[in-house]
Amino acid sequence: MAAVDRATPHHRLRPPSLALLLAEARSLLEFNASILLSPLLLQAPKGDGHPVLVLPGLLASDLSTAPLRRYLRALGYQPFAWELGRNFGGVYRMRDRLRRRLTTIHEASGRKVSVVGWSLGGVYARDLALHAPQMIRGIVTLGSPFSGDITATNARRVYEKLSGEDLDEIRPDDLQALTSDMPVPATSIYSRTDGIVNWRTSRLRPSPTAENIEVLLASHIGLTVNPAVLWAIADRLAQPEGAFAPFDRSGPFALAYAAPPARGT
């Protein structure tokens, strides 16, 4: 089983470098690539019509996830925006509002809901899975800082100022729960060239129902529009309810995925 990095007070992780932060501008290229490759992307496994709740990152709104939701709709899913305005952070203060949103979708559809969360939205997704697993089919997180030293992000000061939550004061049991195995299938998609979040904080502990997918050269901002990421999301959502199999990296975007770590490393 692959090890997940654990930061201690004596070994804090650093946020991504300034060079990686500045390189986030390449997200526009990733978006353009997804448009050019849209005929290929539409060959991804088709959905079964189940609902998918898509959660935006810090300071983002539903506008930021619109391309992803359009793609999921084209594949046959029933995608839902979070409809909570701009994301100003606050895992604790948003918990009840997100659970009500999830409940509304679950009751209206009569089906379990997949949750896709980008960055902070992925932290929300894991928190929802912990507190409402009976309504969730599975979760996919995109560049989300939930493991180890979650302060290793270039967005820390913005998060703390807007949310009123000090990352160093989050309850240890809550941090442990977010890092631990989820009660539902979980996939974490991340990139080592993320300019906002230290990629090590986005890795979950692999298990028979959980895995990491590393996308090479992706930006943080581009994770919702990168074609290789979109393909991986579609593939993961297409799994039958209650089933989980490792992601097949041999598809049309094979060169964009890092090989999974060998067992025992």
What structural class results from the helix and strand content? alpha/beta
Tally of DSSP helical segments = 9
What are the secondary-structure elements, in order, as H or E?
HHHEHEHEHEHHEEH
Distance from N terminus to C terminus (CA atoms, Å) equals 7 Å
| Physical arrangement of strands within the biggest beta sheet | 2-1-3-4-5-6
Helix content: 25-40%
What is the count of β-strands?
A: 6
**Low-confidence blocks of residues:** 1-10
What is the overall shape? globular
Largest sheet: 6 strands, parallel
What is the top-level CATH class? Answer: Alpha Beta
CATH architect. name: 3-Layer(aba) Sandwich
- CATH superfamily annotation: Alpha/Beta hydrolase fold, catalytic domain
Instruction: Briefly note the CATH topology name.
Output: Rossmann fold
Rg, Cα atoms, Å: 17 Å
Q: What average pLDDT do the residues reach?
A: 94
Q: What is the total number of structural domains? A: 1
DSSP strand (E) fraction? 5-15%
